[in-house]
Amino acid sequence: MKRRAKILLIMVMMVVASACVLTACGAKSASGEEKPVIGVILYKYDDTFMSFVRKAIEASNHNSATIEMKDSQSSQTMQNDQVDTMIANGVKALAINLVDTQSASTIIEKARAADLPVVFFNKEPEASALSSYDKAWYVGTTSAEAGIIQGEMMAKMWHDNPFWDKNFDGIVQYVLLKGEQGHPDAEARTQYALEAMANKGLMLEALELKAGRWESEKGKSMMEDWIAKHGDAIELVISNNDNMALGAIESLTAHGYFDQGQYMPVFGVDALPDALEQIKAGKMAGTVLNDAKNQGKATFELTYNVAMGREPLDGTNWKFDENKAIRVPYVAVTIDNIKFAAEAYK
């Protein structure tokens, strides 16, 4: 009987130990408080911009929490299952980078059933979804702002560089690399960039406008097709993000652009380190800083606060807008302020 009792005791201790692994049982933060487990799920790890947001979340932790991080690999079904698993494992709060923004309500219902706070980041749910649950918030940007800043930057530089109008017809013949059909950021960046240029007095003609799913390889292959089709009739390349712009630059370079006076203005969004290098090299005209560092920082700070049962903005400098969202501002980036943009990735 004693041997049985010992075996039973060992088994119970193993179960408790396993539970502690999942829930950070008894783990203490640097400040001596019990560390909450925070579940963080990204729509896909290999998105270049989101990889910087992920690093910023981790860098903001300072041993205050245990972060359980997952990659949804662009599958909303996988993400839903990951949320279920994290809730079952006893996380204290969720931070979700949605695969499909239309699935926010599904995630919210799962969180509501567990009385769990949820912070969405980078991909913005509908305002009605956020307002439906008092423990749901958003961290990101104002999508239209990126388009407006990009459009105004392109308009100014077009006016400053009259030789960009190759056929001297007073019309901007452009191609546009769109991120993703129906994606809120892609739709807003496209619409407001073009509107901002028109508002600055430019006449526009779209030679091509297609979705490249934010990917460099797509940007490269699409640019390849457009050069073959339109040749030097293309006067401007607009991209919803730097990844696609970098792909386009690779294709343009292979066709002799940026050498011996043959030039093509290319504009992106994100101010990724690789894009900044292309600005220095004279191959990208400009981009828009999408501040990954502060998006990650705000996401962690908000999620940590609600996981600890505190007020969401406790001890931070962030503010909510009317939609319970923290908005991290965009900034135009050219060769003139490139050092400022580089600081966002340190």
From TrEMBL:
Origin: domain of life: Bacteria
Which positions make up the signal peptide?
A: 1-19
Oligomer status and interactors = The ABC transporter complex is composed of one ATP-binding protein (MglA), two transmembrane proteins (MglC) and a solute-binding protein (MglB).
The Periplasmic binding protein domain covers which part of the protein? 38-310
Q: Which CDD domains does the UniProt entry name for this protein?
A: PBP1_GGBP (cd01539)
Compartments, as annotated in UniProt: Cell envelope
Q: Which Pfam families match?
A: Peripla_BP_4 (PF13407)
Using the record for this protein, list the coiled-coil segments as residue ranges, or answer none. Answer: none
Instruction: Alphabetically list the UniProt keywords.
Output: Calcium, Metal-binding, Periplasm, Signal, Sugar transport, Transport
**What protein name does the entry list?**
D-galactose/methyl-galactoside binding periplasmic protein MglB
Transport among keywords:
yes
Predominant location category: other
